[in-house]
């Protein structure tokens, strides 16, 4: 196939899916600006792969995600024996997400983690757990290890008797020592935790949540078979400087279709009014910071968000 024929296949993909992913270019308060990305160097020569690489880059996927999608489109083409521009890859087998050994998976947690409060102190953790938030996280940023250990212990105490599941962000050793329900780590954290330490967390029965920001990171997260996968940032957030653009609802829905074997958590810029649209993607949990912490009445906000979670279920 020559370059013109490959470009015609790429155009067919863009024609089919431009409205879905391109719809994110609309301009309203929650719009997500996804600009076409430069075409990365091709690693293979098959037409389906090359066409998908071109199309996905044009649709705004960054190089590693366009590459992951292009490889999946090629596998889909081989598996089904035909190139189908209409079918956006969503079969885990095409992403190499099958055939994991379940004996090596992290401890399970419920598919529906529900409203998930990501909170700055043990006091906030206790307050939101008592308000009925079913999943909470202590996201306590400090270099002072003694202060970290104290805060984590206090958070573990604070959720006792509330039924809330407590995840600890980043500080996995102290979280293990304190007997927290789970640990949340980012991609950078995964880079720095040694394989033997991950194994220590896994065999302790402590749950593990992993942040992802696109297709390549989801594939990478799957390699450790975590208890849940977080997907974000869905919308712009002022709370954390993100290395990648907000993903938007269309991508979130595509991620949920692909990763439905995992409990999934959507995070980033999710305000109360956006809950129905986020829940409509099928994601089982919605994580928020500012929607709780910046609310004039955080307990009332928690009640409101819990209702939104249920209404959209
Ligand atoms: C539920 C949830 N999702 C994502 C994050 C972000 O984690 P990470 O990428 O490690 O960034 P920091 O929170 O450490 O700044 C999270 N904390 N919780
Ligand atoms: C910690 C984190 N990780 C990805 S987005 C985010 C912050 C979410 O905060 P908010 O819900 O206030 O946008
Ligand atoms: Mg982190």
Automatic annotation (TrEMBL):
Pathway: Cofactor biosynthesis; thiamine diphosphate biosynthesis; thiamine phosphate from 4-amino-2-methyl-5-diphosphomethylpyrimidine and 4-methyl-5-(2-phosphoethyl)-thiazole: step 1/1. The keyword Protein transport does not apply. It catalyses: 2-[(2R,5Z)-2-carboxy-4-methylthiazol-5(2H)-ylidene]ethyl phosphate + 4-amino-2-methyl-5-(diphosphooxymethyl)pyrimidine + 2 H(+) = thiamine phosphate + CO2 + diphosphate; 4-methyl-5-(2-phosphooxyethyl)-thiazole + 4-amino-2-methyl-5-(diphosphooxymethyl)pyrimidine + H(+) = thiamine phosphate + diphosphate; 2-(2-carboxy-4-methylthiazol-5-yl)ethyl phosphate + 4-amino-2-methyl-5-(diphosphooxymethyl)pyrimidine + 2 H(+) = thiamine phosphate + CO2 + diphosphate. 2-[(2R,5Z)-2-carboxy-4-methylthiazol-5(2H)-ylidene]ethyl phosphate binds at residue 269. 4-amino-2-methyl-5-(diphosphooxymethyl)pyrimidine binds at residues 137-141, 169, 211, 240. Mg(2+) binds at residues 170, 189. The keyword Transcription regulation does not apply. SUPFAM superfamilies: Thiamin phosphate synthase. Binds 1 Mg(2+) ion per subunit. InterPro entries: Aldolase_TIM, ThiamineP_synth_sf, ThiamineP_synth_TenI, TMP_synthase. Its EC number is 2.5.1.3. Its cofactor is Mg(2+). Keywords: Magnesium, Metal-binding, Thiamine biosynthesis, Transferase. It is an enzyme of class 2 (transferase). Residues 122-292 form the Thiamine phosphate synthase/TenI domain. One of its GO terms (molecular function) is thiamine-phosphate diphosphorylase activity. NCBIfam families: PRK03512.1. Belongs to the thiamine-phosphate synthase family. Condenses 4-methyl-5-(beta-hydroxyethyl)thiazole monophosphate (THZ-P) and 2-methyl-4-amino-5-hydroxymethyl pyrimidine pyrophosphate (HMP-PP) to form thiamine monophosphate (TMP). This is Thiamine-phosphate synthase. It comes from Comamonas guangdongensis.
């Amino acid at each position: 196939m020559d370059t013109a024929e490959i470009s015609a296949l790429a155009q067919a993909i863009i024609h089919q899916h431009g409205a879905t992913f391109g719809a994110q270019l609309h301009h309203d308060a929650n719009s997500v600006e996804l600009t076409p990305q430069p075409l990365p160097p091709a690693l293979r020569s098959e037409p389906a792969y090359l066409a998908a690489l071109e199309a996905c880059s044009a649709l705004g996927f960054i190089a590693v995600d366009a590459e992951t999608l292009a490889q999946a489109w090629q596998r889909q083409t081989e598996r089904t024996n035909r190139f189908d521009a209409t079918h956006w890859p969503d079969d885990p087998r095409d992403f190499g997400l099958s055939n994991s050994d379940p004996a090596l998976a992290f401890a399970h947690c419920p598919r529906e983690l529900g409203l998930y409060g990501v909170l700055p102190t043990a006091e906030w953790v206790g307050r939101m757990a008592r308000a009925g938030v079913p999943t909470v996280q202590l996201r306590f940023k400090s270099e002072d290890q003694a202060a970290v250990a104290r805060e984590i212990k206090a958070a573990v105490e604070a959720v006792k008797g509330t039924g809330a599941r407590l995840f600890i962000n980043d500080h996995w050793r102290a979280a293990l020592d304190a007997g927290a329900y789970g640990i949340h780590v980012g991609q950078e954290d995964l880079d720095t935790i040694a394989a033997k330490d991950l194994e220590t967390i896994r065999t302790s029965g402590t749950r593990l949540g992993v942040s992802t920001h696109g297709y390549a990171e989801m594939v990478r997260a799957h390699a450790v078979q975590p208890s849940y996968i977080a997907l974000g940032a869905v919308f712009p957030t002022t709370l954390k400087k993100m290395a990648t653009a907000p993903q938007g609802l269309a991508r979130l829905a595509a991620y949920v279709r692909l990763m439905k074997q995992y409990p999934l958590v959507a995070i980033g810029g999710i305000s109360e009014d956006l809950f129905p649209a986020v829940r409509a993607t099928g994601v089982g949990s919605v994580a928020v910071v500012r929607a709780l912490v910046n609310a004039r009445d955080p307990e009332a906000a928690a009640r409101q968000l819990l209702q939104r979670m249920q209404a959209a279920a």
